[in-house]
Amino acid sequence: MWYRHNLYVQDIAIIKKFRNDKYKLTLHKYLRQKGFEVDSDKQKIKNVNDKKLDCNIARARAKIFEYAICNDWDWFVNLTLDARKYDRFNLKGYIKDLTQWLRDYNKKHDLKIKYLFIPEQHQDGAWHIHGLLMGLPERFLSKFKPGRHPQKLIDAGYLNWIDYYKKFGYVSVGRIGNFEAVSKYLTKYVSKDMANNNRELKAHLYYCSNGLKKAEEIERGAMCSDMTPDYENDYVKIKWFSSLEEARSYIR
Question: In what order do the strands lie in the sheet with 236-241?
Answer without folding.
Answer: 216-221, 8-18, 22-32, 236-241, 231-232
